[in-house]
Structure formats: structure tokens, C-alpha cells
Amino acid sequence: MRVALVKEFGGPEVLATTEVPDPVAGPGEVVVAVSAVDTIFVETQVRSGSFGEHFPVRPPYVPGGGIAGTVRAVGEGVDSGWLGRRVITSLGFSGGYAEQAAASAAKLVAVPDGLGLQEAAALVHDGVTAAALMESTGLGAGERVLILGASGGMGTLLVQLAKTAGAMVVGVARGERKTSLVRELGADAVVDATDPEWLAQARTALGPAGAHVVLDGVGGALGLAAFPLTADGGRFSAHGAPTGSFAPVDAAEAERRGIKLLGIADVQLTDEAYVRLAAKALGEAASGRLRPVIGGTFPLTRAAQAHEAIEGRGLRGKVLLTT
Description:
alpha/beta; 6-stranded parallel sheet; 10 helices; globular
């Protein structure tokens, strides 16, 4: 079968299509014929060699942690009823950029009828994490939420979930194309992060008390700048780092103001929690209450171009690989 292999750390050009043996389902595993692969920003950071302290992956390796496809084989101890079923699953961090992948049966989630596999793939990571963030922050009706990176794969889902929860949503994105998408998805106010006055505009939209919840999917200086917009006694989630680092918020300042700090560790899930939240996200999408935004699809043989598109930050929503 074909895979996209990272030969060495470096730019997108280090991704090369190659042939490897087909996987075999071991005990407790299945083999999935992959239809679509969730492709996320952190995979480009690992490929570049810059995130080694968080992901101890060494070349050569096959990237890709989230897939959607059809079960074609089951291993010892796995219910044969999975055969032929459409599923999504998280592989951890590697093995997904492939025509087939071995996966743990414990993390399989059935895709509901009426939902396409590309749409399902767009929820493998971001749908689950967005649902987990809604639970961990306890965002509720009548509360104000500021969402950084609101036009991205996860941000677009968070805007919709927050509105469904009854929150007042202020989204932050970059440029007219992205801010218009966030507005279309239902945000009550949208701020363009390229405007030098974006912080003042966000403060005006939120009101003098600030946001009950800040969902920072960007990190770095932008996330840090948004921290003062958190209301005293509120919640600040620094779960994103496409800028290269998580927002370096002062924990002592947060404690003084009674702000609960959350981070990437708060959305690291057990298999049981993953399955529950993934099924919830898929169900919302199948019902039409949640719309994954797919900004670009690339064949497996163009994995390098997919990474270029992600790093260029021009696309809105998700980037997927297809086989």
C-alpha cells in the first residue's frame, strides 16, 4: 500500500509517497481502509523538527493520527460486527497518512448514516477536542466567550457549539475571508486580529467585565494579549500553539484574579472519553446542528502540498488528505 513518509525533519518537501507492506490486525485491532485523513497544524510542527519535546517522533515515520474509513479486517478478540462498518478513530500520532491503517478496536466510533466520511474525518480531532473544551470550561447559557482562531478547524466548531449552548460569542480571526466565515457561523461579534485595535474592539464587544471564558487556539503573543480580557473568576483555556508556543500566562496573576487556567493536558482523553465525545460530535453533525468546514482536500500523493497549505494559513477550516 501507499503511505506518505517523513524521510527526515524539514520542510513539506520531506514528505514522500512510498510503498510499504499492508498492515495486519493484531489482537484487539482492526485494519481500516482509509478514505480521509485529518491533517492538523501540529503535524507540520513535528515534521519540521520543532516540537520534539512534546512528540518524541523520529524519522522515518508516517504522520497522521486521525482517520475515517471502512473496517476491512478484525483481529483476535474483536467483534466481527465491525467488518464493513464506516468508522473514525484516533491512532495517537502516526500511521494515518496511508491507504490502510491498523487501529485499536477500543477507539473505533461508528459514523452515522447520512454523514460523509470526509465530514467525519474533519471531526476526528477537532470535534472531539471542541466537545471536551465545552465540558472542561463549563460554558453555559448567557455567558460571554472569546474564541481565538475562530476560523480554523476547531474554532469553527467551537463557534457553533458555543452558540448552541446559548453563549454570546466573540470570534477572533485574520482577514476579511476568515472573519466573514466566523460571522456566517453565527458569532455575535467578530474581530480581525490584523487590526491594531483588535483588543479594544474585543473589549467593546465583550463589555467591561470581559469574557467568562477565553478559548485560545492560537497561543503565543496573541493568546497572552487576550488574557486580560478574561473576567475575574472566569476560565482561560490555552490549548493551541500554531504560533509555536502556548500562551505564557502568569499563573500568579490568574490566581489573584480567580481565573481558572486550563491547558492542553485538560483535553488529553481516555479511550472511553474519546469514544463518547466523538460519538457526540458525529451525532451533532449528522443531525445538521454542527457543520465541519473543510477548506481543502488533497490526495495522499500530495501530502507535501497539504502541509504547505496549512502552513500558509490561507485556507479556512480543515485540510484533509484523501486516498
